[in-house]
Specification:
mainly alpha, 7 helices, 0% strand
Length: 178
């Protein structure tokens, strides 16, 4: 069926690249092309997962609650202080070794990249929110809006412009990291 047709197409692409570029170069290019799909998949997972977790951590960091601010700050400090490669090793090799849990390599990579991305995205977005004047927060309170509604309806739309470029820049960094 479908899998056999894909297998034939993959072999044909490999043979084409080898015939065009020669034996070692064609094989290397073929392997790079085949690996690129995993890079895209892991990058997408890291960006979406990191964005969701990062949005929560960012809300903690700008929250009026000092406890939530400290929790968010500790999270950002922990995962920004840990190199990505070390995080991959800890989750992929250390966790199974010390807990006995069987961790799938794809799950380990996805979790590590999500944790890493969320800490950086949370801080990028917190920085963009910090550029919005206190008067905007006070306006939300004057209108009777809760903290989250003020954040969503007043602050976020203004901070979006300042957060867009560093967010895209970090997406490039995630792709390079995978």
């Amino acid at each position: 069926g479908r899998a056999a047709a894909v297998s034939v197409e993959v072999r044909a692409m490999k043979e084409l690249l080898v015939s065009l570029l020669g034996k070692p170069e064609g094989i290397v290019l073929f392997q790079l092309i085949m690996a690129a799909r995993f890079t895209v998949l892991l990058s997408l997972l890291a960006f979406v997962g990191g964005g969701l977790v990062g949005a929560i951590i960012c809300a903690f960091r700008v929250s009026p609650s000092s406890l939530l601010q400290r929790v968010g700050g500790a999270y950002v400090w922990l995962f920004q202080s840990t190199p990505l490669l070390m995080l991959l090793f800890i989750i992929g090799l250390g966790l199974p070794k010390f807990t006995g849990w069987d961790v799938d390599p794809w799950t380990a990579a996805g979790v590590a990249l999500t944790l890493y991305a969320s800490a950086y995205l949370a801080e990028v977005w917190r920085g963009a929110i910090a550029t919005i004047g206190r008067g905007q927060w006070e306006a939300g309170r004057a209108l009777g809006l809760t903290f989250l509604r003020t954040l969503r309806l007043i602050i976020f739309p203004q901070a979006l412009r300042g957060a867009l470029a560093p967010t895209v820049g970090f997406l490039v960094q995630i792709i390079k990291g995978t």
